[in-house]
Amino acid sequence: MRNIKPIIFSLLLLSFVVCIPSASSAQTLTGTWKANDWNWKSKDKNKDDNDDKNDKTVDKDKIQLNFRYEKNNGNWSHGSSYDFSDIQGLTKEQVNGSNVSVKFRIAHEPGTIECEGTFNNGNGSGTFRFTANPTFVSAMQSRGFTFNDERLLSATALNLTTAFVDDVRSAGFKNIDTEDLFKAKIFKVDSAFMKEMAATGFPNLDMEDLVKARIFKIDANFVKEVIAMGFAKDSLEDLVKLSIFKITPEYLREMKAIGFTNLNAEEATKLRIFKVTPEFVRDMKAEGLTNLTVEQATKLQIFKVTPEFIKQIKAEGLNNLGVEELVKLRIFKVDGDYIRRVKAKWNEPLDVEKLVNLKIHGIIR
User: What pLDDT score does 59 carry?
Assistant: First the structure.
């Protein structure tokens, strides 16, 4: 489960990707923009994934804007979705019009992005000019944060404000850097969320932990739900597992109803991982496998011991087999067809061990 962390962050923290991070005294940039370009993410490896709903199912009351420019033979890209109220000079009617020329701007504390171009039936493209706000730059420098051109443009697109930065700093994080500010903004980590998690029994989470909590939707309500399910909240990693594998009160009630009572978090997670469902357990009971343990149920799923397989074996006269015997038959590929071939050539009584030995040694193929 520890290996999940680098994968998650590589997928979700591709914000403000800077191919050649160099400072610029001009703090003015020009480039191109596209709107509602749903293929943009797959076309450009240097993209910002801060909006994980950047697809065709996005809210139609929002607009997706992607900005990019080249510098010193390197590419920089950033994409975000916006409410129309966040954009000056652009309406939904213009966006959905036919070959409509537009001029609009995004003005936030870090700077202003001025755009012009054309929209046609929801899709748009054009050029932009970004101008940084020197007051914001000075304010960040006085707080120990340095922003190059690329990050100033990202800060503007994300509406990263001095007030937000001060709020994050007031939470008492140690050694917070500029990248942490962007993580906090993208994943909505502020002092209120830090206090909320502290009140639930996690008082010393760092920025990475809090971002992880946001990614997996772990908040005070989730922690209360975990406690109500009878699980201990020993670590954030345990909560992450429960969230990833969707261990909910409803799931536990379903499993309890079929005989799995007093499951701990590890057992519940194991059942989820190996797709042990109430339907599967009921099917096993119908074939005579009652009172299954977590280990037995997961083993049946791992080795694909299905109701159909059990019926095959029963049809050849092998009844009342236990989990281990059925698993052994499955491992060595002893099925109904093989048993019938053995019967045609073998007059002695057959049991699981005899069948497996015949298959292993190739006596009857």
Answer: 60
CA atoms of 301 and 275, how far apart (whole Å): 7
Rounded Cα distance, 209 and 277, in Å: 31
Please report, for residues 86, 103, 137, 162, 359, the alpha-carbon distance to residue 159 in angstroms, rounded to integers and kept in the order given: 10, 20, 14, 10, 68
Q: Which residue has the tokens 């083993």?
A: 299
pLDDT band at residue 20, thresholds of 50, 70 and 90? very low
Say how many C-beta atoms besides its own lie within 10 A of residue 238's C-beta.
17
Average pLDDT over residues 35-51: 53
Q: Which residue has the tokens 């050539």?
A: 345
- Rounded to whole angstroms, how far apart are CA atoms 292 and 297? 6
| pLDDT value at residue 12 | 44
Q: Which of 285, 287, 288, 223 is nearest to 260 (CA)?
A: 285
> For the chain, which residues make up each domain, given as ranges?
20-165, 191-244, 303-360
Burial class (CB in 10 A: 0-12, 13-18, 19+), 329: buried
Q: Which of 27-31, 165-169, 190-194, 219-223 has the lowest mean pLDDT?
A: 27-31
Q: Count other C-beta atoms under 10 Å from residue 164's C-beta.
A: 18
Report how far Cα 93 is from the mean position of its chain's Cα atoms. 34
Exposure string over 197-209, b if 16+ CB within 10 A, otherwise e:
beebebeebebeb
pLDDT of residue 43: 45
User: What's the mean pLDDT in 32-60?
Assistant: 56
Cβ contact 279:245 at 8 Å:
no
